Amino acid sequence: MRNVEIKARVNDFDAICKIAEELSGGSPKLIPQDDTFYKVNNGRLKMRVYADESATLVRYDRDDEQGPKLCDYDLLEFSVNERDKSKELDDILKKCMGIRGRVVKERRLYMVGQTRIHIDKVQDLGNFMELEVVLRPEQSLEEGQEIARDLQNKLGVENKDLIQCAYVDLLDNK
């Protein structure tokens, strides 16, 4: 799967949430997330645990650069009933690879067409916005970048606030 992403610091949390709500035509879905990142040689690998105890193993690879960038990813989802299996896999990965870091956040999810707008409150980091334009197989990177830039402008996100890396990288550098 592929998407185009933009990530930025948020200076006015309430204002950007209001704009995102207007663009999406509805209230956000609140999603508490607890991500454990593993040490890997290429890309990033994390186990994301949700408040309902379901989980998703996420492998992704994207360049660390500002602005709209391509992200290639794979998901392995575990339902609430499979929670024991996700814990076993998490334990195995921790033993084999080690833990790189942990990111705990409260995410507000807004949908605008094929784009997920995330407004995140990240523990020990602050507030952020992330756009994920989920590309259809026939769509080009450039088309996804155009959609992302348009939404960035509509949300009032300035280029100076863009960040090029993942939250776990920001925590590493803190």
From TrEMBL:
<dbReference type="Pfam" id="PF01928">
    <property type="entry name" value="CYTH"/>
</dbReference>
<protein>
    <submittedName>
        <fullName>Uncharacterized protein LOC112051133</fullName>
    </submittedName>
</protein>
<feature type="domain" description="CYTH">
    <location>
        <begin position="1"/>
        <end position="173"/>
    </location>
</feature>
<dbReference type="InterPro" id="IPR033469">
    <property type="entry name" value="CYTH-like_dom_sf"/>
</dbReference>
<dbReference type="InterPro" id="IPR023577">
    <property type="entry name" value="CYTH_domain"/>
</dbReference>
<dbReference type="InterPro" id="IPR008173">
    <property type="entry name" value="Adenylyl_cyclase_CyaB"/>
</dbReference>
<dbReference type="GO" id="GO:0016462">
    <property type="term" value="F:pyrophosphatase activity"/>
</dbReference>
